[in-house]
Design brief:
The chain is an alpha+beta fold and about 775 residues long. It has six domains: about 5-70, Arc Repressor Mutant, subunit A (Orthogonal Bundle), CATH 1.10.10.2480; about 205-265, no CATH class; about 290-455, P-loop containing nucleotide triphosphate hydrolases (Rossmann fold), CATH 3.40.50; about 460-560, Translation factors (Elongation Factor Tu (Ef-tu), domain 3, Beta Barrel); about 580-680, Rossmann fold (3-Layer(aba) Sandwich), CATH 3.40.50.10050; about 685-780, Translation factors (Elongation Factor Tu (Ef-tu), domain 3). It contains 23 helices and 30 strands. Strands 7-8-6-9-10-11 form a six-stranded mixed beta sheet, sandwiched between helices. A six-stranded antiparallel beta barrel has the order 13-14-17-16-15-18. A six-stranded antiparallel β-barrel has the order 23-24-29-26-25-30.
Amino acid sequence: MDQIRVYELARELKISPQALISILRTLKVKVKSHMSHLEDDTVAQVKQMFQEQLDAAKARQKQRKNYQQQQRQRRLEKLKKEEKKQTQKKEDKKEEKKEPGKRPEKRQEKPKYPPKKHVQKDKEKPKAKEKPTAGTPKTTTAKEKDKQKAKSYKDKKQKILEEKQKKFFDQQKIKGNIKATLTQDPKRKKYKKEKTEVEEEITKIVISEFTSVSELAKIMDKNPTAIVAKFMELGKMVTINQRLDNESLIMICDEFNFDVEFEDQYGKEILEVDIEDEDKSEVKDRPPIVVVMGHVDHGKTSILDYIRKANVIAGEAGGITQHIGAYQVEFNDKKITFIDTPGHEAFTAMRARGAEVTDIAVIVIAADDGVMPQTMEAIDHAKAAGIPLIIAINKIDKPTADVEKVKVQLSQKNIRLQGWGGDIESVECSAKTGEGIEGLLETILLVSEVEELTARYNQKAEGTVIETKLDKGKGPLATVLIRNGVLKPGDIIICGAQYGRVRLMLDERQNEVKECPPSGVVQILGLNGVPKAGDTLNVVTDERKAKDITSKRQQVIRQRQIATGKGVTLDNIFDKIQESEITSLNLIVKGDTDGSVGALCDTLQKIRNEEVGVNVVHRGVGGIVEADIDLATASKAIIIGFHVRPNAEARAAAEVNHVDIRLYDIIYEAIDEVKKSLEGLLAPTIREEHLGTAEVREIFKISKIGTIAGCMVTKGKITSNALMRLFHDDIKVYEGTVENLKRFKNEVKEVTEGQECGISIVGFNDIKVGDVIDAYIKIEEKKKLEL
């Protein structure tokens, strides 16, 4: 289970990382920053503490709600009583209206409730009209007015009471359950649902590694200052132009509720969009691309050599003279492309980078050796790549060949061949005599027809870099395999972090090629630098776009190198102190091709145990130059050259700075020498070897010398330079060294079994008769490293 980080736990608990760090420190948990990992016990302890506080807060909230409910109930009861009184008063008024002669008394009660303003007007108006001219009309007008005033007063009073009651209930409902009120509104619910859907659509963002704060702000549509402020809250100081590593990007995107996805390379989506916009109607069949893998010395190279020799043109020397990593052959008027990889490690690296360069894998197994560990490893790589297998059982011409044994071993490993309950094709062949080679090629064509391999011919060319090298006369060379489209001279191309214009294309026989269709393999000239094996090749129309994409990719590579080689800080000083216990051998690896350098570095970095390891400071393609010597001097590294040599300036600088340069032509020689160098850094194993035992028979005390033990050697021998242990009644009382060893007053180097001698011990005189002396020596043995 992965350990949780401080900021992740803080987000889960809905508190700031600084607050969580303070809490952890009160719990005496040592944390360096918000990126520190937490143990499971610590996480459980913090969550339990928060749960207890949450339960207590819920209990208090429940008590508060109960109290509020009681208060609300009391108010409602009081309001009901008032309403009941008002209703009773209305009924009493209705009864009074029905009884005659009671109107004047009722009129006197009126001024009790209405506002003063209305009372004063009612009093003033009768006074202004008290000058009677006729009795009957005046009385009638006053009655009508009194009735209207009484009615208006009742209406106003009822309206005031209803408004008060309505206002009270509305406020209680809104305050009591505002969330439920909102969810009951269908329009609001619909809007909320639509808004959530929109938020889900924009939460996922795709960014590249080491994106700057300003670039991230544009992608997230946020103000850069808001991102800087959020980092400050998390305890990290950043600037707007600072580039962020993966952990920081994930952390800040989580804080802004964005789900981040890292793209493999900058500009990949731009190039994919360009390809998608093109017409894809022209789809045709293409030749199969085949990789041959297998255990060492099982005949993989021999099969490739035989196929190559059968296809050379008249007058050309046989064998693969130009090692370009891949080549094409023709069989039955159909082409087959073979990938010549430097072992299964390079194939794994290509697959890991997502470059699905092969269609079929041929696994070579020697009929006399059978299935080996590397054979199964190659089969696993091919299965992981999702490509069909063909088993080629080689060396059937040998007397010790046992084909049935190989098939049984494969079935035991769940590799079912045709005829053995499976569907995997198998071919029996001999690279020495050529028997079965044509059958192997026919099987490859048959499997390719079943797979229905096609490609788009009318789009911009795209492919994969198979091998690269730096040629002194031609400059950077890249061997590329085209997957779709047709590559032509003059095309503007992007290969990983390098770009250029195709100036020249060469086939495996160094002949100039005018175009390269899908499944074709060519060497291209014109790049501004050496790309890496496995990089993707893309053709673009705009050179400015190519420069922009490659410059951003190079920037990411530089930032990655800076990040991996950063110095000691207060945050990682403890880790660095721990790492200082491991002795490492720094290496700078230079080679003629990127594939060779990659395979060598991968193998060297596997040489490691608990005490020592290999650290590849720098790797590159080309000869050893003065800059490599400067780097080796600064990093105290050894330079390993594979199929390359240092120039005159580099040799002179190496002599002045005492830099060790090792040159090799065979990869195994380089690996063996590095192993021996690392074994020299290992602390030796100390082993004890028992020499002999002597029994003390008599004690002699001599002034100025000390105690001499007269002994009889009962087993083995006693030497003058031996270490010893003194035992009294089988209990060790002293451990030291022999000071003097004498026989008949003469100093001797050793005394053998059955002889008497005199022994004095350095710094110890309390020797008694009957004591036993065990003599031994310590032997240092060098440790051995295993790959």
